[in-house]
Fold:
Amino acid sequence: MERIDKVNGTFGRRAPAVSRDSVSPAVIKRLPRYHRYLGELLRNDRLRISSSELSRIMRVTASQIRQDLNCFGGFGQQGYGYNVKYLYGKISELLGVSAGYRAVIVGAGNLGKALVSSHMFERRGVIRSALFDIDEELVGKTFSDLKVYHVDELENYCRENRIDIGVLTVPRDAAAGVAETMAKAGVRGIWNFANMELRLDEYDVIVQNMHIGDSLMTLCYEMVSKEDKHEARPEVEGK
Structure:
């Protein structure tokens, strides 16, 4: 007989959670979107939401939402939908929001300062720890409550403070060397804005290569595609 699991909020037999390694990259990329939309619902005091309503908000099919969440065991209840707070909490766990990861930003230029001054890190549970740069005029100064250290101190600082994440906003020719320094100090993840493909497989370090220009080019492509569709439409008689 089907039953309602009071612990995880699923209807019937709980869908078995699969290994994280077997979850497709497409599903993983959608998890932050779930987190963001659910956070907004919580701020608006929403207690529950159906998959169909969530699909309208996110512009993802209800079937896709159910499939995505079933990869991790499923969190809904038939006839009730999803408990927003519970689902937000579970997705936060999946995304490591409560893991207390510590990060340093290497490169105190315009991008580094912009990242430090945003609330992006704290909202995602990542603790900003320090800034690093080679510019002697910046070393010792403070930006958004973070002190700037010389990059020569990077390895010791990362090791002594158990830094988990390194954010690279350095010139591309310096990125590989800085990343290797952090990897040797025990950093486990690199968020790379150096506009080059960086890999650290030999250190078992995860690298997320960010190319801001790619997003701009994707936008331009979609705009051109839309313009082409308009131009291809036959003119309506009488207009």
Q: What stands out?
A: Confidence is low (pLDDT under 50) at residues 1-18. Residues 102-214 form a domain with the Rossmann fold fold (CATH 3.40.50.720). The two ends are 64 Å apart (CA to CA).
